[in-house]
Design a protein that fits this description.
Elements (H helix, E strand, L loop, with lengths): L3 H11 L10 H4 L4 H5 L6 H17 L6 H5 L1 H15 L3 H8 L8 H31 L6 H4 L3 H20 L6 H6 L1
Helix pairs in contact: 1-4, 1-6, 4-6, 4-8, 6-8, 6-10, 8-10
Length: 183
C-alpha cells in the first residue's frame, strides 16, 4: 500500500517538479494539496506507476558515493526529478512522463518498466557521482542540505547531470529508456 504522504511527495517531485518542497510535510496536505491531487490525470494507476519509479530511485541510492547525501531523504526526490528530465530526452520516455499508467498494464510491463528505469537510474547515478567529484576537485563541494532545498540550485545541478547522460546515450555508450523498453 502506498501512503498518502509518499504519494504526495512523489507527485510533487515528479509531476510538479518541486523536489525541494518534499520535506515540507505541513504543506503537502494544506496549500499544495490541490495542485498535487486535484488534477484530472492523478489516479491510482498513475500513482502506482510513479511509485515504481520512486522505488527504483530508492534501490539505486546505495550507489551514490556521497554517503551523507545518499542518506538524506530529499535526495531521492531530487533523483526522481532528474529521472523525469532524463526520460524526456526520448519519445518513449516522454510518453512515460505524460501517461505512466500506460506502462504498467500487466506484470510483464511492470518488470520491463523496472528494468528500463533501473538502467537509466544507474547511468544517472554515475553522472551524479561524476558531478559531485568535479565539485570536490574544484574545492566547491555540494552543500546538499542547503542546495536540495533551493529551486535554483536543484535546477542547476540537474542541468549538469542530465546532459552528461544525454551525451552518453547519443554516443551509444549507454542505452536509453526507449532502447530498453522496446528491446
Amino acid at each position: 500500500m502506498i501512503g498518502n504522504e509518499v504519494a504526495a511527495r512523489i507527485l510533487l517531485a515528479f509531476d510538479l517538479e518541486q523536489p525541494w518542497a518534499c520535506h515540507q510535510t505541513y504543506r503537502l496536505f494544506d496549500e499544495l494539496h490541490s495542485p498535487i491531487f486535484a488534477r484530472p490525470e492523478v489516479n491510482a494507476k498513475r500513482i502506482r506507476a510513479l511509485y515504481e519509479a520512486y522505488e527504483a530511485v530508492v534501490q539505486a541510492m546505495p550507489t551514490l558515493k556521497h554517503e551523507l547525501m545518499a542518506g538524506y531523504r530529499l535526495t531521492r526526490y531530487f533523483l526522481l526529478y532528474v529521472l523525469k528530465a532524463a526520460l524526456r530526452t526520448t519519445d518513449v520516455g516522454s510518453s512515460f512522463v505524460k501517461l505512466p499508467q500506460d506502462f504498467v498494464k500487466s506484470s510483464a510491463d511492470m518488470a520491463r518498466l523496472r528494468r528500463s528505469l533501473d538502467l537509466v537510474l544507474g547511468d544517472l547515478i554515475v553522472d551524479t557521482n561524476a558531478e559531485l567529484n568535479e565539485r570536490d576537485s574544484a574545492r566547491k563541494p555540494i552543500d546538499f542540505k542547503r542546495e536540495l532545498k533551493s529551486p535554483t540550485a536543484v535546477r542547476q545541478l540537474a542541468q549538469q547531470i542530465v546532459p552528461m547522460y544525454e551525451k552518453a546515450v547519443k554516443r551509444g555508450r549507454v542505452r536509453s529508456f526507449a532502447d530498453e523498453w522496446t528491446a
